[in-house]
């Protein structure tokens, strides 16, 4: 083997090992603050919107890269970024969820929610909801 290639491979292996160690250190339990990391609503900032259950086909990959399954709890929104964590409140129930797709395309509806999330909230048809960003 060429000595220059061997040196390169050793250097790349070292960089890869360093990257793994950094990832482990950043993601290790107890590496952050001592406070709980359970998301909670941003205080006092709730928004009103219309939402409806979506009827997209199961097994497809969303615009955010999520494969939608029957039990997927998620929300589609045309503008909010993929992965944004939000709370949705409807009829006294509050659920933490996230943006998993960019839709809906129906005028007047701001959020399209998965069937599983609609069932958890007790939401049928087009309904007014309240929502807020999750704060960690």
Write a structural description.
The chain has 2 helices and 7 strands. The longest helix is centred in the first third of the chain and has 25 residues. With 136 residues, it is an alpha+beta fold. About 5% of the residues have low confidence. It is elongated. It has a 6-stranded mixed beta barrel with strand order 2-6-3-5-4-7. It starts with a helix and ends with a strand.
Topology overview:
Elements: H1 3-27, E1 40-41, E2 47-53, E3 75-76, E4 85-90, E5 93-101, E6 111-113, H2 115-121, E7 127-135
Parallel strand pairs: 2-6, 3-5
Antiparallel strand pairs: 1-7, 2-7, 3-6, 4-5, 4-7
Percent of residues in β-strands: 25-35%
Low-confidence stretches are 28-34
Number of helices: 2
For the largest sheet, list the strands in their spatial order.
2-6-3-5-4-7
**Helix content, binned percent:** 10-25%
Give the helix/strand class. Answer: alpha+beta
Separation, N- and C-terminal Cα atoms: 51 Å
Q: Note the main sheet.
A: 6 strands, mixed, barrel
Overall outline: elongated
Provide mean pLDDT, rounded: 83
Q: Which sequence of SSEs, written as H and E, runs from N to C?
A: HEEEEEEHE
Q: Tally of extended strands?
A: 7
């Amino acid at each position: 083997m060429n000595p220059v290639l061997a040196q390169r491979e050793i250097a790349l292996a070292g960089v890869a090992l360093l990257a793994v160690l950094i990832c482990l250190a950043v993601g290790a339990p107890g590496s952050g603050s001592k406070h709980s990391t359970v998301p909670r609503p941003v205080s006092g900032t709730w928004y009103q919107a219309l939402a409806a259950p979506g009827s997209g086909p199961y097994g497809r990959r969303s615009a955010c890269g999520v494969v939608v399954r029957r039990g997927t709890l998620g929300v589609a929104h045309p503008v909010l970024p993929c992965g944004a964590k939000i709370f949705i409140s409807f009829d006294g129930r509050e659920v933490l969820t996230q943006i998993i797709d960019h839709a809906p395309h129906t005028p007047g509806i701001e959020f399209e929610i998965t069937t599983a999330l609609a069932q958890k909230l007790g939401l049928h048809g087009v309904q007014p909801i309240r929502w807020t960003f999750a704060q960690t």
